[in-house]
Design goal:
Blueprint (H helix, E strand, L loop, with lengths): L52 H9 L2 E5 L8 E2 L5 E2 L1 H14 L5 E5 L5 H6 L5 E2 L7 H6 L2 E3 L4 E3 L1 E6 L13 E6 L3 H12 L4 E6 L2 H9 L5 E5 H10 L6 E3 L7 E3 L2 E3 L3 H20 L6 H7 L3 H6 L16 H8 L3 H8 L31
Parallel strand pairs: 1-4, 1-5, 9-10, 9-11
Antiparallel strand pairs: 2-3, 6-14, 7-13, 8-11, 8-12
Helix pairs in contact: 2-8, 2-11
């Protein structure tokens, strides 16, 4: 095993770049909401008609309170006009569209890694849609439930190309920036311990601090979810000078988190996600949904869009709840592409997040709409 050569002898520290295209709102997508309070809009139910304490509170307030990342490019961030945008933000918007027929009825609550679960458990937010990995210990011990998976991620390593590294196993003796209070810290320790390798952890409080430390040459590698590494790379002065090593050292299924004990609310959040997934599978998009609601002869499409029956009634929602999600926010593929995929600065491939029946198959799968 070759000894790791300190980065400080190989490359000068890099300064952070200015705001990337995603922060300038050059890739608009559907309009996102601001945080200004609003009068309660007309909704499907009145608070007294719902068995869900959370839904009652949401309806009375007139907005969904959504816990999000304070600033992760592609996933949750404010653009230069002060509007929230991103992959996770769009799912918050989809939830508001399902309940209020208005995707802009969202209050975004930025939460750090250490704040997020307490904010959810104490009712500060109704749902946590914030790059949060589903693990047994969290599911069993934190009085929270996971309503689904909207992004299959994994932990990796961002390094400078000038190091000429081909594998994370060549990081023996390296200084590695890792966020405290995250699953990444334990995963990193497990990876090196299992291989009998050594590393020097540079513990940081959040993604911004980790990115800054890496850019300044305080660590030789940055370890986090690959999605977060792609976001960090996009902000560096020369993104092409950095690469993500091939090893994925963990499974990080990310998805919405809700409080335990409110089954109706959990179902609404879960099926808001599934609607976007099954719509992509069925070929229903924001551009085609209106015509398909009127003309489709596919029974599953007709049920999904409220052309026949009212599957939303089982959730306490109206017959056009799914139509409102798709017309205002779009299907999963649209949400992915404009925020983190081909139409975004991150340009992440679908990978595991491809549909189960795609030519290059992924893990994305929704239960049937019936």
């Amino acid at each position: 095993m070759s000894v790791f050569r300190p980065l400080s002898r190989l490359a000068a520290p890099l300064a952070l770049a200015g705001l990337v295209c995603g922060l300038t709102a050059c890739n608009q997508g559907p309009k996102a909401s601001d945080d200004k309070p609003a009068q309660a809009p007309e909704a499907t139910l009145t608070p007294t008609q719902s068995d869900s304490a959370t839904l009652k509170a949401v309806l009375a307030r007139g907005r969904v309170s959504c816990g999000v990342h304070p600033g992760l490019i592609g996933f949750s961030y404010k653009d230069n006009s002060g509007r929230w945008r991103g992959f996770d933000v769009d799912f918050c918007r989809a939830l508001a569209a399902a309940i209020f027929s208005d995707a802009d009825k969202v209050t975004y609550v930025p939460l750090t890694t250490t704040e997020r679960f307490e904010a959810l458990k104490t009712g500060k937010v109704d749902v946590l849609w914030r790059s949060t990995s589903w693990t047994l210990s969290r599911d069993a011990a934190d009085q929270v439930d996971y309503a689904g998976i909207n992004y299959y991620d994994g932990q990796g390593f961002l390094v400078r190309k000038s190091l000429r590294l081909n594998s994370a196993t060549e990081l023996n003796g390296a200084r590695i920036c890792v966020q405290t209070g995250s699953t990444s810290e334990l995963n990193l320790a497990d990876f090196f311990r299992a291989r009998g390798l050594k590393y020097n952890p540079v513990v940081v409080k959040n993604e911004d601090e980790g990115r800054d430390a890496y850019a300044a040459g305080q660590c030789d590698a940055l370890s986090s979810d690959v999605s977060a590494l792609a976001a960090a790379r996009a902000t560096l002065s020369d993104p092409t000078a950095h690469t993500i090593l091939p090893e994925i050292i963990s499974k990080e299924p990310l998805g919405p988190v809700v409080r335990q004990g409110d089954d109706q609310w959990t179902d609404i959040v879960r099926w808001t996600l599934y609607v976007t997934i099954v719509a992509e599978e069925l070929g229903v998009s924001s551009e085609t949904v209106k015509a398909q609601q009127l003309e489709s002869q596919n029974p599953e499409v007709r049920r999904l869009l409220g052309s026949e029956g009212n599957l939303g009634g089982g959730l306490g929602l109206g017959p056009e709840w799914a139509y409102n999600i798709l017309s205002q926010v779009g299907n999963y593929g649209e949400i992915f592409d404009r925020n983190i995929g081909a139409d975004s600065p991150l340009k992440l491939s679908r990978g595991l997040n491809a549909q189960w029946n795609a030519p290059e198959r992924g893990l994305l799968y929704s239960p049937p709409v019936r």
